[in-house]
Design goal:
This protein is of the alpha+beta class and 97 residues long. Helices cover 19% and strands 34% of the residues. The chain has a 6-stranded antiparallel β-sheet, covered by helices on one side.
Length: 97
């Protein structure tokens, strides 16, 4: 993960899916709209927060829960919600072996 670079990212497609499936969670939709930089680990996972030292003191990555969204085009999408309403990353289950 260290040799991957942060890239610009347009989260609007994810925001649209969230607005459709979890309209009663505006804080999560707002958090998704802030995911404008990403590290693409693979087809199956994109990071929006650096996962180094996850869940350790002083790490930005402090896991809270998963949110599952369904989409016809992308299949099952799992959002990693971090403490403070940050989106840590997104996983696409259809690409897992």
């Amino acid at each position: 993960m260290k040799n991957k670079k942060w890239e610009s990212y347009n989260p609007q497609w994810l925001v649209a899916i969230a607005q459709k499936h979890i309209p009663d969670e505006p804080e999560i939709i707002a958090a998704l709209s802030k995911c404008v930089k990403a590290k693409v680990e693979s087809k199956a996972y994109i990071y929006f927060v650096d996962p180094d030292n996850a869940n350790q003191p002083n790490s930005e990555w402090q896991f809270e829960k998963n949110i599952v969204l369904e989409d016809k085009k992308h299949g099952t999408i799992v959002l990693d919600l971090l403490k403070g309403n940050k989106i840590g990353g997104v996983e696409f289950l259809k690409f897992l072996a």
